[in-house]
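Case study 2.
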Amino acid sequence: MAAGPQGASGAPQPPRASIGDVARLAGVAPITVSRVANGSDAVRPATRERVQSAMAMLGYAPNTAARALRNGSFETIGLVAHRFARTGESRTIEGVVEAARAEGYTVALVDVVSPADVSEAATRLRHQAVDGLIVIRAEVATPTDLALPPGMPVVVSDSRFVGHHAAVGSDQIGGSRSAVEHLLGLGHPTVHHIAGPADSAPAVQREETWQETLRRAGRPVPPVLRGDWTPQSGYALGAQIADDPSVTAVYSANDEMAAGLMRALHERGVRVPEDVSVVGFDDAALTEFLWPPLTTVRQDFRTIGSELVRLLLAQVRDHVDVSREHVVVGTTLQVRASTGPYRPRG
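Prediction:
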């Protein structure tokens, strides 16, 4: 007689409970167990409770692969992100997970070390049985070198992929323009900019908009100050800004660098906003609890997440071609106490 399957300890493992086992224990037909497993409403509450109790007692888990063959869907969304510990990525992921849950979908998440790994991660997720793929910030990848499994529904949070894949993103241009115009409206002769990494598409858009807004206003464009999204980089640049009395207004490409800058200025006796006004970008949770509270550009990450899921499910469920759709989600300037009228620095 053949031995049963063994676990890591070498001991025989009990056979996996079947749908028939659950049906016998619950005293129902196998089709009723199937309906409960698939979330059908065509089961009376008392019967559903009895079946679910039998499932729990037997440790029964529905065969998702078989269910997908029957229903044509795994009810799982693959999500690839690069450095999702960053505010924009993490909050967009939260929005995707929330929207997917509301649609009855789960999310399989893969964090890639480098943008060059996105294609490999997408293939790996395809083998894990997902219905479609959301890519959060492909960054340096282009539509031609972002190789994805053929026929896979895809949505990208990156406007460079419009025409190749559906895209959703924040209004980087409008948000950056509002930040710079706010500071100019307070009388500052110009605005200095702490930019994000040069290989980041959002950072480039924010930097280019800062330059263009100053040029349109007839103001000088100072040399860009390059950060890397981290508060440490903002802090390091803060020493340079503190020593330059010509700097009275700074637009930071994200809130973390702005927070680092504000600490560096405080440690060097430069007051915010009396000496230097500071604006960030993202409206991270910490911004209103900084001192002074940070003026920043708010991104609507919940809407971004829900739009990414909506466009993906339009392909998965309805087989609609949305490759040319580009959803731009508006931003809002949150004015707080870190900005004030221009005053020459001593």
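Residues 301-318 form the longest helix (18 residues).
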